[in-house]
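In the present case, backbone shapes were mapped to integers, as reproduced here:
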Amino acid sequence: MNKILVIDDESWLREMIRLALEQQGFEVIEAADSTSGSAKARELLPDLILCDVNMGRAGSGYSTLEKLRADAATAAMPFILMTGMADSAGMRHGMELGADDYLPKPFKVDELYAAVNARLRKVKTVRDDAERKLTTLRTHISMMMPHEMRTPLNGIISNAELLATAANTLGPAAIAEMGQEISKSGQRLERLIENFLFYARLEIVATDADSVIALRSAKITAPSNLVRPTAIAQAEIAGRLPDLTLELADGALAMAEEYFKKIVAELVQNAFKFSEAGSPVHVSLKAAGEEIEFSVHDHGRGFSTEHIQRIDAYVQFERKMKDEQGLGLGLAIAKKLAELHGGRLAITSRKDTGTTVVVKLPKPKNS
């Protein structure tokens, strides 16, 4: 049974709304002013709030809305403002504060039902979608994480056991080699966990419109200063600095530095991973109309059309044929970051001839 909080200083109106909603099976809570209404919202956590805009000395619906939106426990509650003065300026002000809908007074019972049911249906749709995504995420994690974490752990444990039990029979070269293997496995595990947590954070951000808006308000004035050192660092890790070519032209970019560096690092790392030493990896940055275009091209084995269509978190291409490291999260993270910032990621690839990954991101609105 859905709980609805009605905040209005007129007792006859609260009574009318309560009787009408109870006939539809709703549980109704009443409050006569802004203070008690806010307190009941925090205490009882209703599924929906109906609040009068102008309650005289009993408070303002706008101030009630503002207080509840500022509290984490009540920030996401659906909120409908009731008003006899539904002018455009007042409606705009209410929407800016976070109102979900307006119900102009006087209203008919059918109009009340329509507004309430529409808002509750939207909440249910959002919750069902979030639950579906969470279920999918759990399934992928349960299938992929145990194997992916076990692989580097096996390398760490087996080499550590050898060092612990047979160190006196091993030469310095063998001990050094085992130490290097432990270090490589540890770094692989660390990156796996970091990317897993990073992607999970992006999934959470994607469900909150305010967080997405905040993401898009960031700005980078000279992205080439991030691309150059990040790409060079990945080339050095791969031992392929001579294979890297850079073609960088600056333009302001609507993204935080942390996220753009992540896109660059993941895409350049993949280019080196899926191509042979001695083959070029070309990294480009340029303005393209109202967008900034970042691209990475390699001459590696490429992806099939089917693989490109299946880019997603925890999808590993040709796992049985090629023992590549990682969960396949790199491309998924870059794609998710681009989309969260109002951009897009596209891949063109041919098997055994190479791949080009292009990320197009919007320029800041005020640039």
About this structure: The chain has three domains: 3-107, 130-207, 213-362.
